[in-house]
């Protein structure tokens, strides 16, 4: 089993297009309601602290389920069943938002959405396993691009439809997208693994890989800040500046267009030439700048322009953190490693919105953003020290 080739099965062009369409539909279902979630909860009287809990619930279930799902997927050597479950749960979650449209309903819905996103492990590993090691970075960036494209289409749909059909209406679109993604997942072709199950004790050895832990922690910082700011509280700041619902949606669209564009850039030759040593600390600097400037924005125009910066975080930084974390992992252990990676960064997705909401309630949202800027500075230091030590090791064998 050791040394198994990553590209033992090859996508036909038609299969790849169908698969990436399914990925976009899945993330459309997961994120169409996001631009208006925080403002909607505020409108119906939900406080900042409980809103933070609602946002954190999405990461909580991912934290609990991602590593066991990755371990199970590697053990049985199958991903299709997890992909199908993810598409179903993405639609099921929005049923809670439709029929139980209060704070508790959104809390329950986000728990189910988190379960759906926990299956993202299998989406990514199944796709990247079709490509050789030298193409892993571009393959990772490509699937992240279609991930972001699905979110972008969702944000466009919600921006155009929220004022007309309300939160319940856009959640119906979420349910329909999840069902269509499930239909496409039924057409996935997955060959049976010839070698049978792998012992769980052998798979858990990935937990000893220091490099995996380091980039998982950096992803914890990146994902936690992204979910808390660009996808949540930044929209509330925009609303506090007097922006109409259309501008709130436009804010999310600018962010997602930026994310799609930078994800495409991350798979291009120029970006790959500079490599993670340059881009990881550089984008963490941009995140810090973003967290300092957003709560200081004097008008909606300034804030809309700033939404380009978290697009760099999603498109470039997350792509590189994922590929760096998976570098050198044996093919038969990739789901377990991906499960650990995603479970660790789910801690940030759970904790960051909760403590930012509490800081906002106790002091101000500005204080919360400044704390996040400080955490991003930690990411800069960790990445710079890692790559400096790596260079020294190469120069002093």
TrEMBL record:
UniProt subcellular location: Cell membrane
Pfam families tied to this protein: MFS_1
Transmembrane helix recorded as keyword: yes
Lineage per the UniProt record: Bacteria, Bacillati, Bacillota, Clostridia, Lachnospirales
Domain of life, per lineage: Bacteria
Keyword presence, Acyltransferase: no
Alphabetical UniProt keywords: Membrane, Transmembrane, Transmembrane helix, Transport
Membrane topology (UniProt): Multi-pass membrane protein
InterPro entries, A to Z: MFS, MFS_dom, MFS_Exporter, MFS_trans_sf
GO cellular component labels: plasma membrane
Transmembrane intervals: 16-34, 40-60, 81-100, 106-127, 139-159, 165-186, 212-233, 253-271, 278-297, 303-323, 335-355, 367-387
GO MF entries: transmembrane transporter activity
CDD domains per record: MFS_YxlH_like
Protein name per its UniProtKB record: Putative MFS family arabinose efflux permease
Primary location: membrane
Residue stretches making up the Major facilitator superfamily (MFS) profile domain: 212-397
